[in-house]
Amino acid sequence: MSNVVQKRIEELVEVIREHDYKYYVLAQPEISDYEYDMLIKELEKLEEEYPEYITSDSPTQRVGKDLTKEFKPVYHQVLMLSLANTYSEQELFDFDKRVRDSLPKDEQVEYVVEVKIDGVSVSLHYQNCRMITAATRGDGMVGEDITNNIRTIKSIPIRLNQKLIEQYDLSDIEIRGEIYIETEPFKNLNAEREEKGEKTFANPRNFTAGTVKLQDPRIVAKRPLNVFTYYLITPNNHLKTHFENLQILEKLGFRVNKEYKLCQNIAEVLEHCRRLEEKRASLAYEIDGAVIKVNSLRQQRMLGTIAKSPRWAVAFKFKARQATTKLEKITWQVGRTGTLTPVAELKPVSLSGSTISRATLHNIEEIRRKDIRQGDTVIIEKGGDVIPKVVSVVLSERPSDSKETQIPQYCPVCNSSLFRPENEVAIYCENQKCPAQVKGRISHFASRGAMDIEGLGEALIDLFVDMGFLHSYADIYQLKEHRLELIGIERLGEKSIDNLLSSIEKSKDQPFYRVLFALGIRYVGSGAARKLADNFLSIDNLIKANEQEIESVYEIGPSISKSLVKFFSDESNLDLIERLKQSGIKFQSESTSVRSNNITNKTFVLTGTLENMTREEATEKILNAGGKVTSSVSKKTDFVVAGENAGSKLTKAQQLGIMIITEIEFTELLNNA
To answer: Where are the beta strands (DSSP E) in 118-171?
Structure first.
């Protein structure tokens, strides 16, 4: 009897999985909803009676009951990079030229064009046919584990076809895609919430991003999320082209957007991009452009990546959609560096799936150039389909009593004096203790990409600054001393405060590069912070460094070096760092226990295209072995690694008599380290 039951359960699992694929992926259902529900009920009944036969990839196990209290970090084996954007056809021609110039002259270049879905990136890891993890993009290096929530999306298979996996040698693969919600379901969901008096979602992307991070997968399962997959990664290099990989993804049961096209040249790319932009309004989902990728995976590896994006792919952004509304008022907001930014307060209007009520006016020069005045009827659009901005004024509808916009005489927040540096457009509040600046710096410090203090959002920061609990981000780590007072604040309570204090304590484990980014030093983004941390290893070393030493770090320029030296010359900033040190914050990179070898303390310069690794991979290998990487050749350089098409750096190395090694010699050096 048990064998009969087990066999029937296996049959039901396979049949339901096949119907899920036909319904959610192909949109070609073969049975009615009632018949499908009967299959599910039969499976549920058998699994209830014979729980020993329940498998983790059963259709009944998609929705877990346990809350996800913590989204654990997932380290991406291959960086999840963002794409560089282009906004004109000329920029696409420039991209094509850069690609062809970076490859050997006899290389033929094909491209694949796909739609750019306005959703949330996801990485799906499968081993031996089963989904192991699903993760967010995060900072590109480390994402968050959202497996329980992603399993609820029925268009994502949790088990793959064994025969196909063996056929293509795909026992260990990573699939990348975009989670999204279609336009109509989003509108219907917002309409329902409005009827109930609940807060509506700003736009489909924000809804999706919030949903995949919900703690209860049962709520996620009720929300109509979907997926398009667009990239297949394997540990080996046996796959040949991106176009073939998209076809393999379809065969494996993944949803792939049907609008993709293989193009033989950039002219065909442009033609397809125009066609996609024409179809944009008729699609069931939001897109904000097209993605163009070099088809050959070998060529992709040759082209490699830069700090934040691949050299072999680019996004072509479509023209922004526009709307007309009334500018009711111009206000001025103060940022964390003291910069005053004018903001247009608008009569709410719908645009690209969002309700827009505010738009940036950038600066006073922009206001005067466009002659924007309070009470004007204005045309707005989303810059890159993300940030709302005022494009122009409808002069025929301007009120007769309108007046030109004037610069405020004093800071609108703290009433301090303002100053405008020579040759700068920006206006600044002089008071570093201005509450708006303090709030901005604390908000940046606590943000996800920095110290990631969950629960310390803008509303709570505003409250704590206004009540005098926070005067700087160093005060965050003294909040535990005010626990009883915080618990007594209306609408907070013991549980929420204890959760916050726990998150603050946990943030002390953040690595040095994140702490450096969290300090909010002008021009020091997350990528630059990582390079600086990897090279200087501690805040003390960085404080002692001069501009020239800082600029010797690969891709660190004078703007960053000057900003760092200025920041560390301010005693108040050094006091903050000292307070953070005393709180237990990490201001040095953890020891990697690198033993002394033939790379330790040696300085490398990389030039040309490497065949078997990207520059970023080579840089990481050198750093892990205890070496250093700089961007320019000097007498202090120990090795120049010369790949294909090496340029002026190779010439300079020859002139200075620097040791020049090939990629093969470099690999041997690494292996012997």
So the answer is: 120-127, 130-136, 142-144
- 298: its two tokens: 């070998």
The mean predicted confidence, pLDDT, of the chain is: 87
Residue ending a domain, among 317, 343, 376, is 317
Q: Write out the residue range of the structural domain in which residue 340 sits.
A: 322-398+408-421
Distance CA 250, CA 272 (A): 21
Task: Tell me the CA distances in angstroms from 450 to 404, 446, 517, one per residue in order.
Answer: 40, 6, 6
Residue 20: which residues within 8 A CB-CB, separation 6 or more? Answer: 59, 154, 157
Distance CA 14, CA 4 (A): 15
Q: What confidence tens digit (pLDDT) does each residue in 202-219 have?
A: 778 888 988 888 888 888
Residue 587 lies in a domain: no
Token digits of residue 177: 């895609």
Rg of the chain over Cα atoms, rounded to whole angstroms, equals 28
Is it the case that residue 541 has pLDDT exceeding 50? yes
Last residue in a domain, options 355, 390, 421: 421
Report whether 179 contacts 212 (CB < 8 A): yes
**Is 635 one of the catalytic residues?**
no
Q: Measured between alpha carbons, how far is 492 from 502 in angstroms, rounded to an integer?
A: 15
Q: Three-state SS across 383-444?
A: ECCCEEEEEEECHHHCCCCCCCCCCCCECCCCCCEEECCCCCCCCEECCCCCHHHHHHHHHH
Q: Can you tell me which residue has the tokens 């030039």?
A: 607
Please report the sign of the dihedral spanned by the C-alpha atoms of residue 181, residue 183, residue 185, residue 191: positive
For residue 598, give Cα distances in angstroms to 295, 341, 381, 638.
38, 52, 56, 11
Count up the domains in the chain and report the number.
Answer: 6
Predicted confidence (pLDDT) per residue in 337-396, tens digit: 899 999 999 999 888 767 788 998 989 999 999 999 999 999 998 755 457 889 999 999
| Catalytic choice (65, 97, 116, 308) | 116
Task: Judge if 504 and 526 occupy the same domain.
Answer: no
CATH number for the domain spanning 184: value is 3.30.470.30
CA–CA distance, 350 with 250 (Å, rounded to integer): 35
Element (DSSP H or E) covering residue 322: strand 322-334
Q: Based on the domain organization, do 274 and 380 belong to the same domain? A: no
What confidence tens digit (pLDDT) does each residue in 46-93 have?
A: 777 777 767 766 777 666 555 556 778 888 888 888 888 888 899 999
Nearest to 477 by CA among 342, 390, 581: 581
